[in-house]
Amino acid sequence: GKLAGTVVQFYVEGTDVLGATTTFPAGGTNSRALFKVDDGLAATNGLHNVRLVTLTAEANDLFRTVNLMSNERIGCTLIYNEREIFYDGALRLKGSEHSRTTTPRLGFNVSFPSEQLFRGIHSTVAIDRSESTGFGQREMLIHQTLNHAGGVPTKYHDLIHVMSPRTEYTGPAELQLARYSDVFLDDQFQNGSDGTVYEYELVYQLNPPTDNGTAEGNKVPAPDSVVGTAIRNLGEDKEFYRWNFLIKNNEDRDDYSRLIPFAKAMELTGTNFLAQITNIIEVDSWLRGIAVNALSGCGDSYGGDGSQHNVQFYVRPEDGRMIYFPHDMDAFFNATRPIVPNGDVTKLIAEPAYARTYYGHLLDIIATTYNGTYMTRWADHFGRLLPAQPFASHLAFLIQRANFVTSQVNAAVPNVPFAITSSGGNNFGTTNDTITLTGTAALGVKQIGINGVNYPVTWTSLTAWSLRIPLLNGVNLLAVQGVDRNGVFLTNATDTIMVTNSGPGALFPVVINEWMADNAGPNGLADPADGLFQDWFELFNPNTNAVNLTGFFLTDDLLQPTKWQIPFGTLIAPHGFLLVWADNQPIQNGGTNGHLHAAFQLGAGGEAIGLFSPGGVAQHALVFGAQIENVSQGLFPDGHTNGFYFMTNWTPRAANTLAAPLRITGASFSVSGATLTWGSVPSRTYRVEYKNELGDPAWMPLAGDVMATNATASATDPAPPATHRFYRIVELP
Fold first, then answer.
1. pLDDT tens, residue by residue, 656-702
2. Residues 6 or more apart from 49 whose CB is under 8 A from it?
3. Is 419-501 a CATH 2.60.40.10 domain?
4. Which of 67, 169, 519, 600 places its Cα 20 to 30 Å from the Cα of 558?
5. Looking at domain 664-731, which CATH architecture does it have?
């Protein structure tokens, strides 16, 4: 046998009956199917093992100083958990010139043959051993924070024990899987890989000496100096942006068409900045990403201390907006680092609404994730796997940082009560059909709801809000309630006021009256435009006047109220109905039947629908749960928004009815008793009652009411044989 640690190269050759010869791997002698005689280096403490096997001479060449910064790959075999083998892969080094020249920090990148991807999907993985200035995997805590807190794109890494071609690079590491690659993008965004990812980076200047000390020699990785730039207007030529905003995918497109306007807008100030940047970035997720970055307490990153690198930006294909991707948060931790990390954030949160959003994200992430209660489990888990690393100290830092950030947010934003301040909070009268309502709210409030409908709110300060609301003629009782960032109405943020309108009354809003999100043939409703069985919903006008819906918006995402604009000239008659097909086929609009076709679809598992005015005022919005095939759900009576019901006899373009008259449809008898079946409305409750003689004074209930889950329901009376009874079914309120 071979000595422990010996690397053996092999290939398999076969010849068929016709004399044709082939090899596996296909490269034969030039391929890198390798194995290594057990060297005893595999971890046994629960870490996944990743073994990188290369030819010794090729590895020596890879680690030569002159080659350290090369991304040229050498052939390798990767063995996962000492069982799953990936032959004829390719290996290169990973990291900056600071990392690749430092033993504890050097990392690897492995590509896999197309016929055997890692975990069936990854064409490459990265292996990160560093904690920026040294060895360690502290960043796993930050990524766990991102994954649990939610609301911002992030990566998923595994902890591994890597056995590299050299023992000095063997030990714990992060196995970085999808990262922000096309695999991640296509999973998280519609047509995600069509969008470009840019890495904001410094330019590293390699200074003398060269490898041989002459001007003609090869440059070596260190010493060096760096040059950065703020995100600013560098002109129209994309070459001026190229090396500070590195394209990470779609390199062949070489597309900076969205990056340049973004950089120009970031240089602006004041109202000009806010007017432009909010049309370019996705503000909420941007601020949430920076909030996690700032919470980590790390430096050497754009979202940590304003450094001019270590973040990635992504152009979302569906709307061209720039999305913030947190990246590389593993260096220079400081528990009392300022919570506003850079001047760009300072400009953004000069707008009170965005300041509330940012500070609210900080507190939300602390409350749900970045705290000792939640993170202790993960610090203990990582600490058991990596006993040589100080995860107990990392946890103590995390708690200290969370406490510091909380104190800074509380100092910036007073914790005021939720209250109406219009007319001092007292009832008042007006002759106007629309009023401005004002009040105060603490940071937990994201939106304001009135009588169950969310209205666009203007934050006039960090704690004060105002909104416009239409009034009916006469007395208007307004129940005002705070809504959190998840759309939950807060029970500790309520107030009421009565406003009497002695002038003309405003129109009632058009409402979403009925919907079917699980419409299937042949028994469902076919779209006359194409014969397909698509999702649909119905709008109802409760007014005695027609309503012009031109410029109104429909959406299935209440956080994106302007998702699809209703076409010009769309009218809905007095007490009339308008059918909207949620088929994502707006090209079908303009037909003779007057139906609309919205640019979204509904989900049978639960969905939101919203109708918003051209000015962004919510007319009606609702969230429904799981649906039943070919059963609609809607308001009853028409326009009554206090609740909605399943309806087996759906009525698009007509008044809603809960069901046909209650009727027993079947009866059967067995040794178990008598079983009755009747037509039902899903979610309604029924009671079976009986008499032994019709002349008995009262009907007696069977034990156990029945809640219907389908269009029929049934119940069994376990009466003994030869029992003579009369039955009736009662629908309970």
1. 887 666 788 888 888 888 899 988 877 778 899 999 888 899 999 98
2. 42, 43, 79, 80, 81, 82, 160, 161, 163
3. yes
4. 519
5. Sandwich (2.60)
